[in-house]
Amino acid sequence: MSNLDTFEGSTPEILDPLYRHQKEGVSRMRTSLLACSDDPITTKRAIQNITTMRVYHQIARIIKYLELMDKLEDKLYKALEHTIDNAKEDSMSTWMMLLNAQERLQKTMIESHKLLQPYLDIQEFSIVELTSNNEEVNSTNSNILIGAESREKIRTRAQEVLAQLVV
Known about the structure:
There is one protein chain. The protein is mainly alpha-helical. The chain is built from 7 helices and no strands. The protein has helices at about 1-5, 15-35, 40-85, 90-115, 115-120, 125-140, 150-165.
């Protein structure tokens, strides 16, 4: 039992850089929240920072999910190829199983695409807006180099470019 004492308090090192980045992001979110005060500008900045980090956190989760699904699909595709290559033409149960697998794969692809939908819908969630709001808060303490009308034109054009890239 004394051997267990050597393992207490030691935390395993996180080797996956994406997961490590997620953990650091959660820590920064916590720090931002704790730094909130009664000052509306500080609070607004903290909420914007937390929201931005939350988006990155969700995207990292989606990436991890996609990595696992790719691994699973690779094995599944190999098994399906083997089944197709060795299927007897008169085996209805094999063909029904393959058709069911095809249907489930299509449904899975559609469902996994839904994970990205909030980030693809520019009207609902705009990363450009979040980052420009951060810059606007920061620029209130310094000289404004670009007028409000010009900034709005730039923001609108950037959203159009993002919309075109997503399509």
